[in-house]
Amino acid sequence: MGKRIVIALGGNALGNNLPEQMIAVKQTAKAIVDLIQEGHEVIIAHGNGPQVGMIQKAMTELTRSDPEKYIPCPLSVCVAMSQGYIGYDLQNALREELLDRGINKGVATVLTQVEVDPEDKAFQNPTKPIGAFMTKEEADKMVAERGYNVIEDAGRGYRRVVASPKPQSIIEIQSIRDMVAAGLVVVACGGGGIPVYKTEGHHLKGAAAVIDKDFASCVLAQQVEADTLIILTAVEKVAINFGKPDEKWLDSLTPDEARKYIAEGHFAPGSMLPKVQAAVEFAESAPGRSALITLLEKAKDGVAGRTGTAIHQ
Ligand code: ADP
Ligand code: MG
After folding, report:
1. Looking at residues 162-166, what average pLDDT do you find?
2. How many angstroms separate the Cα of 245 from the Cα of each of 36, 97, 235, 253?
3. Residue nearest to atom 10 of ligand 1 (CA)
4. How far is the CA of 203 from the centre of ligand 2 (A)?
5. How far apart are CA 290 and CA 281, in angstroms?
6. In this predicted structure, what is the pLDDT of residue 306?
């Protein structure tokens, strides 16, 4: 029987620049349509590190070229642009692959806002570097005029750092559910979503933050009542003692085992750690739910239980 699957695409599914992305999405579309062909319902989330970096750099250069005319572009707007650009390529690649296999299914991207808590502790300690390098003068100006947090990055110049708060809820969730119910392949929560917080009334304000796509995908998977959360990345399985002589690749992982390994420091913060944490949270969110961490090209084998690391109770 077909499952409802949320797929979180990692950096390797999209490449690092425009031509790379154009090529990468073809392979990505094949892996996704393999699952659709088997009767699964698929909802796609994705990262946006290189893409939002490129857009933010371009917007910074625009401001530099004529500061009177072009005020700095908010990060939330840059994330929205990256969702549009990536969604455009994914929609096209998926459309083509579906049509090539004779499957008549629409694909749609939802510009997705994700609510964060303005009191999230992450806002007191911004750690995620974003965008172009700046000179000391430029950095001082941004601190004074825009209230940016900046760090000196290993002698290479100054960079803005932003917070990475936890996603609370997905603003467009009902639209996403309706589109899934209508049989569409939905792309949502790109780059972890456009971070927003509620102010007075119904107003939403963009936050100067980036949300981890693994955590956002976990919230998405819960809120669309998925059976499975698949995190596709650059390794086939999760390892303990990763990169060491006694490295051990794991076929499955229970939440309790995962917590033990997390405490022992087996998973790198910012890369494998959020994936394992998201997988555990999803697996524990309701009976019968499971998560899978594997390589993009192994998605089909992974769903069939032949490879990857499965996380379930
Ligand atoms: P993505 O773009 O898919 O989010 P990341 O680079 O953020 O990818 O995270 C995946 C990477 O995490 C892997 O390519 C691997 O190098 C690294 N990694 C860190 N710790 C582990 C571990 N314990 N087991 C497997 N991979 C790990
Ligand atoms: Mg990552």
Report:
1. 95
2. 39, 41, 17, 21
3. 271
4. 30
5. 10
6. 97
